[in-house]
Specification:
Elements: H1 2-24, H2 44-75, H3 94-97, H4 117-120
Length: 121
């Protein structure tokens, strides 16, 4: 259970970092892009390349953590076989398992003091 909790916290941190890197990227309308000097890593092109690569790797890490968390959850979630409540055992011959034929039900007689008995006739 502690592994599941640890991986959940790591996935939450990766998700937060992914959101931040997506919001820092320059969109078509300007976005929240990073400024900086025109040369080097923090130039407009260098920042875009860095943010694109970091977004890609954070997304890969998020998907991989999701798959690992699903596998850990399956391992810790209980029995591995499906139990059925249907009794499929067949005992004896067919005459014992077949229901006995019941006589046809006859309509019940109305009590003598029933006020609606006269109306029905």
């Amino acid at each position: 259970m502690s592994l599941f909790l640890f991986l959940t916290v790591v996935q939450a941190l990766v998700a937060a970092a992914l959101v931040v890197t997506i919001l820092m990227q320059r969109s078509e309308g300007g976005g929240l892009g990073i400024g900086g000097s025109p040369n080097g890593m923090m130039s407009a092109r260098g920042a875009a390349d860095f943010l694109s690569r970091s977004t890609k790797w954070l997304a890969v890490a998020f998907v991989a953590l999701s798959i690992v968390l699903a596998a850990v959850a399956v391992e810790t979630s209980g029995p591995r076989e499906i139990t059925s409540t249907v009794d499929r055992s067949i005992g004896g011959d067919a005459s014992q398992t077949a229901p006995a034929a019941e006589p046809a039900a006859t309509p019940a007689e109305a009590p003598a003091d029933d006020p609606l008995a006269d109306v029905a006739n």
